[in-house]
């Protein structure tokens, strides 16, 4: 009961295609069902909530599975920047120090979705900061260089702290969520 037994990246679209899903899923020993904002959009939120309510009646818990911040990949303002404020042009780049409007909107969207589905767990797979972290640690990104200067810490510590801060922002917002 305290151990999460789930197929985390299996989604509502898969559950709905599995004959007698709830019977079979619980029979196999799983106790958590998951869903993702983007991957299950075609199902519709009402249908997912209906599925999760049925799962809860069977004793299952619900997990929001997400890989947030991918929308930032398409925004120049979220990129690692040179001293003139221009994007460095790195492939797959998001600056770990970026905290603009789109960042806040993504955190808010994740939390709102988690609240809507009454998630018992939130499982995050944040996988898009490697180019930006490299630019920050090597002094290429002016935004990161300024954060390093202000912090008085090493580049590695400052960039790592940025990742910790991202998780903290999400955790703080999620902590205000009531699933009761």
Describe this structure in words.
- The protein is mainly α and 180 residues long.
- The protein is built from 7 helices and 3 strands.
- It has helices at 12-17, 21-27, 45-57, 101-116, 130-137, 142-151, 155-175, and strands at residues 32-35, 61-66, 121-124.
- It has a 3-stranded parallel beta sheet with strand order 1-2-3.
- Helix 4 links the parallel strand 2 (61-66) and strand 3.
- The longest helix is centred in the C-terminal third of the chain and has 21 residues, at 155-175.
- The two termini are 19 Å apart.
Give a topology summary:
Elements lengths: L11 H6 L3 H7 L4 E4 L9 H13 L3 E6 L34 H16 L4 E4 L5 H8 L4 H10 L3 H21 L5
Parallel strand pairs: 1-2, 2-3
Helix pairs in contact: 4-7
Question: What string gives the helices and strands in order?
Answer: HHEHEHEHHH
Taking all residues together, what is the mean pLDDT? 92
Q: Estimate the helix proportion, in percent.
A: 40-55%
Number of strands: 3
Question: Number of helix segments?
Answer: 7
Oligomeric grouping of the chains = single chain
Strand order within the widest beta sheet: 1-2-3
Globally, the shape reads elongated
Report the uncertain regions: none
How far from one another are the termini? 19 Å
What fraction of residues sit in β-strands? 5-15%
Question: In terms of structural class, how would the helical and strand content be classed?
Answer: mainly alpha
Main sheet record: 3 strands, parallel
């Amino acid at each position: 009961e305290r151990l999460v037994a789930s197929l985390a990246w299996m989604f509502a679209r898969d559950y709905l295609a599995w004959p007698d899903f709830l019977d079979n899923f619980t029979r196999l020993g799983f106790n958590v069902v998951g869903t993702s904002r983007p991957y299950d959009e075609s199902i519709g939120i009402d249908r997912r909530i209906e599925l999760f309510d049925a799962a809860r009646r069977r004793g299952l818990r619900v997990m929001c599975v997400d890989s947030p911040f991918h929308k930032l990949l398409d925004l120049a303002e979220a990129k690692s920047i040179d001293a003139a404020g221009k994007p460095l042009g790195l492939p797959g780049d998001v600056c770990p120090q970026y905290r603009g409007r789109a960042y806040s909107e993504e955190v808010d969207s994740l939390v709102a979705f988690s609240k809507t589905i009454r998630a018992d767990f939130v499982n995050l797979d944040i996988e898009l900061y490697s180019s930006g972290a490299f630019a920050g640690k090597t002094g290429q990104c002016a935004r990161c260089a300024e954060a390093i200067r202000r912090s008085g810490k090493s580049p590695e510590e400052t960039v790592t702290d940025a990742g910790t801060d991202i998780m903290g922002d999400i955790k703080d917002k999620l902590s205000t969520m009531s699933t009761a």
